[in-house]
Amino acid sequence: SGCCVVGVMVIALLVATPILAVVYIALFPSENIWPHLASTMLPRYLSNTFILMVGVGIGVTLIGVSAAWVVTMCQIPGKRFFEWALLLPMAVPAYIVAYVYTDLLEYAGPVQGLLRDWFGWQSARDYWFPDIRTKGGAIAVLSLTLYPYVYMLARAAFLSQSVCVLDAARVLGRGPWNAFISVALPLARPAIVVGVIIALMETLNDFGTIDFFAVHTLTAGIFNVWLGMGNAGGAAQIALTMLGVVMVLIGAERYSRRSEPSPH
Fold it and tell me: Are 204 and 242 contacting, i.e. CB atoms less than 8 angstroms apart?
């Protein structure tokens, strides 16, 4: 009815208003610093964001898909416990995990302290230990907290697959690994892609973790330009760049659904 259409349009307008405001401020800033951003800080923001998203994408795929396959297709001790326990990282903010891992793994933390006691090392010059507060550390922490998106969707895809298909692959001479690579994984690919894209969107909008690890991404750039430089227009322009990245991710998700293997 007409009332429903009007209600939907009102809700859609309310949801779209912040986005439209960001677009307007970005296109008509009171002080246009885009040329300065594009020639100085923006390349670093883009490169760091790209590296972070690629690393997290690989990490959540490896952890999420392997965990989903093991708890779905393998008989392991505590299987029923791990089926739901592997979702628990979603309940913990990534920046809290970052604080915990940093306290555990930094020079004054218990891990390095125990290693120095065991091997008799006196200072950091006596041994090598990876620095947790780097881009690699941020990738590791975000991967460990965001993989449940991939795990949840991949496990649902594996559960929906017919056992007969995998049995047929085994009868035709495929080993367990080959059956997973050539049959199960292609069928689950669209669901896995969706999970990875959701994790990448979470990575893109994360601020607490990347700020703690001092990784300058597009999100950090918004805060730096808006609060540090007092320029809302420049921050909106960076936000518009992030919106473009999100649109690319949404396009990739739609493409993955369009190319989903047919069950027939």
Answer: yes
What DSSP state is assigned to residue 86? T
According to the model, what pLDDT value does residue 264 have? 43
* Angstrom distances, CA of residue 263 to CA of 2, 188, 204: 39, 12, 34
CA dist., res. 166 & res. 186, Å (int): 12
Helix (H, G, I), strand (E, B) or coil at 228: helix
Q: Does 138 have pLDDT greater than 90?
A: yes
73 vs 176: CA distance, rounded Å: 10
**Interatomic CA distance for residues 50 and 245, integer angstroms:** 10
**Residue 36 is encoded by which pair of tokens?**
């300065």
Helix (H) or strand (E) holding 29: none
User: Could you give the C-alpha distances from 166 to 65, 163, 217, 243, in angstroms and in order?
Assistant: 17, 5, 43, 41
Nearest to residue 35, comparing CAs of 182, 237, 253, 247? Answer: 237
Tens-digit pLDDT profile for residues 46-72: 999 999 999 999 999 999 999 998 998
Rounded to two decimals, the pTM is 0.86
Decide if pLDDT at 171 tops 80.
no
Q: Give the integer Cα–Cα distance in Å for 90 and 83.
A: 14
